[in-house]
Amino acid sequence: MNELVALTPGESAALDNLEERQRHVRRGAVLQRENEACNELFILRKGLMMSYVLLDDGSRQILRFLFPGDILGISSAIYQEAPETLAALSDCVVSPFDRAALADIMTGHPRLSALILVYSQIERVALTDRLAALGRTSARARVAALLLELRSRLRATDKSIDNAFLLGLTQEEIGDATGLTAVHVNRMLRQLEETGLIGREGGRVTLKDEPALTRAANFVNRYVGLDLSWLPKPRS
């Protein structure tokens, strides 16, 4: 949250309390399973995770990719059973905390509560963009948009990232996020590479012509252009 506003010592201490415990999650492990009881929320401290649902035909739809600093399972706070599965895409470290701690944050630190709302709405709008893309844009545009989204999220936690980044996803995982087969994803990546929009080497992707890639993807970075003038003043 520090990237959006300067936190007060009291706000920082409240967030630090949520991260007192640490749990290591190995790549491929499930942290929370869809339709099972959920009593904890988590803050992702290290690594890359995803949320997904399983469809009736057994296929997987990836909803979001989750990055360090994200609160995981926030939607589970209002349900007795988890509405989505959380799984690790790399070796991860998470900090679990009880729902009651979230209530304490909302009572004692209204600005932090408002910031949680802000992040939830950013995720909602980004997911709406993905939904619109699945129904209305080409396979090439969907893959391009996902690459831009991943780079933007990685840059938010690592300012040294410019146009090159480690993808960290398999073509199957990209396909499950964009509604494509792994074969189709491979074809679209090759097209983007052959037209000079991206480069690939050793698992790294370079955005060679970001303006053209952004136009091709009809991409909007939902983490910029925010109006936070309405946020309540911090209490401490």
TrEMBL record:
Recorded superkingdom: Bacteria
InterPro entries reported in the protein's UniProt record? cNMP-bd_dom (IPR000595), cNMP-bd_dom_sf (IPR018490), Env_Response_Regulators (IPR050397), HTH_CRP (IPR012318), RmlC-like_jellyroll (IPR014710), WH-like_DNA-bd_sf (IPR036388), WH_DNA-bd_sf (IPR036390)
Q: Which UniProt keywords apply?
A: DNA-binding, Transcription, Transcription regulation
Pfam family name, one: HTH_Crp_2
- Domain Cyclic nucleotide-binding stretches: 15-85
* Transcription listed as a keyword: yes
Q: Please indicate if the UniProt record lists Repeat as a keyword.
A: no
Tell me the PROSITE patterns matching this sequence: CNMP_BINDING_3, HTH_CRP_2
Instruction: Give every HTH crp-type domain span.
Output: 137-211
The protein's name is: Crp/Fnr family transcriptional regulator
Report the source organism. Sphingomonas agrestis
